[in-house]
Amino acid sequence: MSPDDTIHRAFEIIGEAISLEPDDFQDNETWKFLGLGVNLQAASASDLSRQLEYKITAEDFQKHPDVGSFKSFLRQIVAGGGSPAATNGAPAAKAPLPEPENPWEGVPKPKVPLSVVLQGKPETAQTTVFLFPDGSGAGTSYNTLPRMGPNVCLVGLNSPFLRSAEHFNCSIERMARLWVDEVRKLQPKGKPYVLGGWSAGGYYSYEVTRLLTAAGENVERLILIDSPCRLYYEALPSQVVAELTRKGLMGASGERKAPEWLVQHFTSTVISVESYHPVPLPKEKVPKYVDFVWVREGLVKSVPESGLQVDMNVKVTRFLLEPRPQLKTEHWEKLLPGAQYKFDYMTGNHFQITQPPHSDSLARILKKTLGCA
């Protein structure tokens, strides 16, 4: 077989273990994200060795922890006629690359504007609220919010990789660096910032807060909209993403399923979230006000009756699927010590937050929070 045929066959074998086709694998996806745990790695290594007739061990999955590096490893094996361990020594595990000084280095020009003014005018509004997107990457999703009032401007931040998720391999922290200049450009100098975000947008708003306060700016208010803290909640497993997509529950509206670009961007976001480990803000940099907005509904009324094949031992899976009590700070207080916390609860489930009529519920909370109810 040619090297390409060998790699294709290898990913057929690996895919059998986790119910994926060879073309479904993305180079930036990790084995952890894909659900190929230690036991499946050992079984897959045994199957690969037997069927491809090259020596492959479970440790090779550890040394090459993502799809792209594992493909390179396989190419080396084929080119060398056997395991690299038997020839030039096993390649070292791929270390994370240091982030470039210029965060835009290697990032293609965005296909959509980084920011969209959804309501009001930033130059005349008393308060400008910057809202960061969930895993879809679309800040324009907040466009469904009813008008806040004459003195409020809403700005939605779009992902630089919206409609081009194949290039999205940035960390949460680097994404914040891609956005921070856009935020500063739209805020009159000296005015305190109000930042917020839904789901992963909460992580982005937190990291932009870090960048702004480190530069001496004042972030007065942080609004976290159904954003599960990474100190406690896991990244969403790929199996859950696949199941929600299969059932039409992820980002769906009415009878329409989520578009492919949204699913691709969501998947890339989950990979970034997997490696995101936030650290606390210094107490003197913490916004004065931290507002939590939670939904209380789950995506389904009953997981067994829904037919979803998911592991309910994963906390973030329960967070999405099951009805909840009235959540409070949920470990965010460890990252944001000393703030004045406020809690509100809106209608709908996690993926309905910006869908009418639930967007009306969110708008009422935001109006009250901003003092324009």
Summarize the structure in short.
The protein has 373 residues and is of the alpha/beta class.
Apparent shape: globular
Count, helices: 13
First-to-last CA distance: 68 Å
What value does the average pLDDT take? 90
Kindly name the structural category.
alpha/beta
As a percent range, the share of strand residues is 5-15%
Q: What can be said about the biggest beta sheet?
A: 7 strands, mixed
**Unreliable residue runs:** 83-96
**Subunit organisation of the chains:** single chain
CATH topology of the largest domain: Rossmann fold
Report the helical percentage. 25-40%
Cα-atom Rg, whole angstroms?
22 Å
CATH architecture of the largest domain: 3-Layer(aba) Sandwich
Strand order of the largest sheet: 1-3-2-4-5-6-7
Number of domains: 2
Give the SSE string. HHHHHEEEHEHEHHEHHHEH
How many extended strands? 7
Tell me the name of the CATH homologous superfamily of the largest domain.
Answer: Alpha/Beta hydrolase fold, catalytic domain
Q: Quick one: CATH class of the largest domain? A: Alpha Beta
Protein name: Thioesterase domain-containing protein
Region (Disordered): 84-108
Organism: Salinomyces thailandicus
Domain Thioesterase: 128-368
Description of the molecule:
The structure is a single chain. The chain folds into 2 domains: 3-86, ACP-like (Non-ribosomal Peptide Synthetase Peptidyl Carrier Protein, Chain A), CATH 1.10.1200; 115-370, Rossmann fold (3-Layer(aba) Sandwich), CATH 3.40.50.1820. With 373 residues, the protein is an alpha/beta fold. It is globular, with a radius of gyration of 22 Å. Residues 83-96 have low confidence and may be disordered. It has 13 helices and 7 strands. It has helices spanning 3-18, 31-34, 38-52, 58-63, 67-80, 172-186, 200-214, 238-246, 260-274, 303-306, 315-321, 332-335, 358-370, and strands at residues 115-119, 127-132, 152-157, 193-198, 219-225, 289-295, 340-346. Helix 7 links the parallel strand 4 and strand 5 (219-225).
